[in-house]
Amino acid sequence: MYNREEEILEQYEIEVRSTSKGRGALNCDTDKGTMMLKEFRGSKERAAFLYEILGFLSDRHFAAETVMRSKEGEVLVKDEVNDISYLLKSRYPGKECDVKSRDDILAAVRKLAEFHSIGKVCEKEIPEFVKADENSLFEEYGRHNRELNKVKNYIRNKKKKNDFELLFMRVYENYKSQAFEVTRQLEEQAGRLDASYLDRMRGICHGDYNQHNAVLFQGEWTLINFEQMSYDVMVGDLANFIRKILEKYNWNTGLGIDMITAYDGVRKLMPEELEQIYLRLAYPKKYWKIANHYLSSRKSWISGRDIEKLEKVMEQEQQRKQFLKMLFCFTS
User: Fold this and answer.
1) Spatial CA neighbour of 68 closest among 22, 110, 34
2) How many structural domains are present in the chain?
3) 229 and 275 belong to one structural domain
4) Which residue blocks in the chain are alpha helix, DSSP H?
5) Strand 202-205 to 230-233 pairing
6) Are residues 37 and 117 in the same domain?
């Protein structure tokens, strides 16, 4: 496989000095800087759009990764033997956002807001395959609700229940009520917002914004790993990042509000966007994730880790509700 990747690199106008294995990629020291050869599972058209958007960000002097074309002018280079497509991207061997550092977290939030602001003024045509359906979140939560119900029915019909199943059922009604209420409120919001509001809320999204994808490189925060880029409600990126961070901070209300304020200081949030953030964070996604993992796993053996995760969700519930209460005041 290593030789195959070397052959792929020969299709680029670069001199490779050395290579090393990285996180799911091949890191390359070249005469044109540090680069990364990485598998790309999307279509040729999606890769071309990614190239265009990253080029647009570069033209606007926004610090983000870039993609290099091959000698033949192709964005993707394919290994025909193994049927694998590759991207060659710039690499930034800097410091990832430290989730233990409040300063890093807020800097990453501000960088996300800057990205959304610049992306919003991009005049490039957005292809349909990048656009999320307007009802995608409502449909996603509907699927999650059905999956929760499926797990409940399966466990209820078991004659002998293990410790995880007993614990899951003890709190099921609480989280089910939350899930269905958020879904109802999301539908209600969609019913009262006209198309102009939705257009203002939607823009180019990173699609997988987390602490690993904001890197401090040569004194500047740089965004990487845009492969999940989409055109959707922009604050979806922010809500996902807030959730990941606050789960590590026991849903610290002060930090959560500071993250929203930091974003708002760069890109002003509309009331409808604040409501979206609230609804996305109010959905009991961690509980659903645990249920979904159980649904797809062997029921004859339950990991102690699953019980620990469920217990942690329960332990954090009061702090989570306190944060959501405060956030709801922001939306009122």
Assistant:
1) 34
2) 2
3) yes
4) 2-9, 44-59, 102-120, 136-156, 163-192, 195-201, 235-248, 253-266, 271-282, 285-295, 304-331
5) antiparallel
6) no
- Start-to-end C-alpha separation, the chain: 56
- Mean pLDDT score of the chain: 93
pLDDT tier for residue 301 given thresholds of 50, 70 and 90? low
For 221-239, the DSSP string reads EEE---TT-EEEETHHHHH
Q: Output the CA–CA distances (angstroms, integers) from residue 27 to 80, 316, 322, in the order listed.
A: 21, 39, 44
Q: Which residues of 198-231 are buried (b: 16+ CB within 10 A; e: fewer)?
A: eeebbbbbbbebbbebbbbbeeebbbbbbbebbb
pLDDT in tens, 96-124: 999 999 999 999 999 999 999 999 999 99
pLDDT of residue 300: 59
Which of 304, 285, 206 has its CA nearest to residue 246? Answer: 285
SS3 141: helix
Does position 21 have pLDDT exceeding 90, yes or no? no
Torsion angle, alpha carbons of 101, 102, 103, 107, to 10: 110
Q: Which two tokens stand for residue 257?
A: 């509000």
Do residues 67 and 115 share a domain? Answer: no
Q: Residue 171 sits in a domain of what CATH number?
A: 3.90.1200.10
